[in-house]
Amino acid sequence: MAYRDSRPRHHQIAAELRALIMSGDLPPGARLESTQQLVSRFAVTGQTVQRALAVLKEEGFVVGRAGLGVFVRELSPIAVEPAAYMPPAQPGAGSRWTDGAGRGRGRVHLVDVREVQPPGAVNFALGLAVDSAVQLRQQVLLLDEEPVELAWLYFPLELARGTALAERKLIRGGIPRLLADAGHPPVEWTDQISARPATAEEARLLELPGEVPVLRTARTVFTTDRRPIEASVLVKGAHRYELSYRQTVVPDGRV
Fold first, then answer.
1. What angle do CA 205, 208, 214 make, to 5 degrees?
2. Which of 113, 233, 238, 246 is 20 to 30 A removed from 49 (C-alpha atoms)?
3. Per-domain residue ranges for the chain?
4. What is the C-alpha to C-alpha distance for residues 166 and 130, in angstroms, rounded to an integer?
5. What pLDDT digit, counting tens, does each position of 2-37 carry?
6. What's the predicted TM-score (pTM) here?
7. Could you write out the DSSP letters of every residue in 10-41?
8. How far apart are CA 112 and CA 100, in angstroms?
9. In 10 A of CB 94, how many CB atoms?
10. How many Å apart are CA 6 and CA 2, to the nearest integer?
């Protein structure tokens, strides 16, 4: 049975053009076809084409230049490689986000620090009783002053109390550095990644356009003896990110 796309036509057109941009077939700086060419190509009205282009402009994929046309913005997706941010930073250095974002100027905005009753999945990940309280650090990661990731970071109270994890200030060198210095080096983590519509809070904090979905990562970080020391919920706008994973195979076939 043939698939019928029930989305409005302008969203269908935006999706096709977005796919071309993200695949590199329409590279940064490329000029899109004219409105009339797009009208002919998709067999729609000029108004429908303009609405499709408005979606892409709002998402930051294209920009209009008066008298010249519409061009792909000089903005490539942010490739996230989890391993790049997990090892502790060198002593005396800033966090890996602020010092090593590599795509612009990274900054961390601290939203909240307090003891909370977390979602049940967090206590399960940390190996705690269902009604246990934990330490929360909620923050927004910005790149060139644009919000690109929300993070809810949860820690066992026995590990956080009396440390900078419980203080309402940024942690110099980043959390992995602090944990390592306290004798709990992060050595392993697991990620569970899903996509879903954004909540009202996520849409507001990430300044998401339209109906852009989010990528949600539920991460558990372990120290030696596979003891869980952090459970995180990380939320990103799906239009800005791609996930990058590497795996090395050694000669005997192990990974």
1. 90
2. 238
3. 9-72, 78-243
4. 21
5. 668 888 999 999 999 988 988 889 998 999 999 999
6. 0.76
7. HHHHHHHHHHHHHHTSS-TTPBPPPHHHHHHH
8. 24
9. 17
10. 12
Question: What is the torsional sign of CA 202, 206, 208, 213?
Answer: negative
**Mean pLDDT over the full length of the chain:** 86
- Element (H or E) spanning 62, and its range? strand 62-65
> How much is the pLDDT for 58?
86
- The residue among 241 and 218 whose pLDDT is bigger is 218
What is the rounded distance in angstroms from the CA atom of residue 113 to the CA atom of residue 153?
10
Q: Distance (Å, rounded) from C-alpha 172 to C-alpha 167?
A: 12
**pLDDT value at 239 more than 70:** yes
**Which residues touch 186 (CB under 8 Å, ≥6 apart)?**
86, 87, 88, 176, 179, 180, 221, 222, 223, 229, 230
Among candidate residues 192, 111, 123, the one with its CA nearest the CA of residue 156: 123
Domain 78-243 superfamily per CATH = Chorismate lyase-like (3.40.1410.10)
